[in-house]
């Protein structure tokens, strides 16, 4: 996306100094899709680190120009759980007109989109509804990342803060803004984008265009397969860490 390209350019220019810490967040306002439909099957998704965080780890690695060497993680399921029968669908439930997650209530009382009609308070509802990970890199710096799937409306956020000694760079795809806060002056540089109506904030068209150029031998890949494999491996290790309560090394060979 344009935000990531600019962020990488500014980081590489030394605008904020060497990045020494990163705080990243993904608060998903449409999280119901992971509990009302086939996404709830963890055999399909591999869990929400692999389903969602993989993209965030991708952009963090791309901006840093580094890959992580270890991860520890934690996940919890506090909201989308319950004792309703397995396989229950909302229209067949006695609480169809009162349950805060039923398609009826979402459409008529909350003005929200419904992503399916499988009961998200049933015993067979999969997926954690929040998760966090700490990534350690070869330089010794670390990244904190947190994702959440039950926030709604303007609580949505997806982006990160990259902090160096000279300044802090932050961006959010929801607000379509990137800021550079200079630590040694009162200056704040603000960049505004117009990408909210594009697929994945313009990332889809950029990747498709680059792919066409790659297969014609005109450009190198902007997102090589190795990068995707590294982020996927990181997510699998994060899931393993959350299940075993221990740090997991990320060995990419």
Q: Report, as a whole number of angstroms, the end-to-end distance.
A: 28 Å
Give the C-alpha Rg.
Answer: 20 Å
- Beta-strand residue percentage: 15-25%
Helix content: 25-40%
Question: Which secondary structure elements does this structure contain, and how are they paired or packed?
Answer:
Elements: H1 2-12, E1 19-27, H2 33-36, H3 42-45, H4 48-64, E2 68-76, H5 103-108, E3 130-137, E4 142-148, E5 157-164, E6 167-172, E7 177-182, E8 188-192, H6 203-215, H7 225-244, E9 248-249
Parallel strand pairs: 1-4
Antiparallel strand pairs: 1-5, 2-3, 2-9, 3-4, 5-6, 6-7, 7-8
Helix pairs in contact: 1-4, 4-7
How would you portray this structure in words?
Helix content is about 30%, strand content about 25%. It has helices at about 1-10, 35, 40-45, 50-65, 105-110, 205-215, 225-245; strands at about 20-25, 70-75, 130-135, 140-150, 155-165, 165-170, 175-180, 190, 250. Strand 6 and strand 7 (about 175-180) form a beta hairpin. It starts with a helix and ends with a strand. The model has no long low-confidence stretch (mean pLDDT about 95).
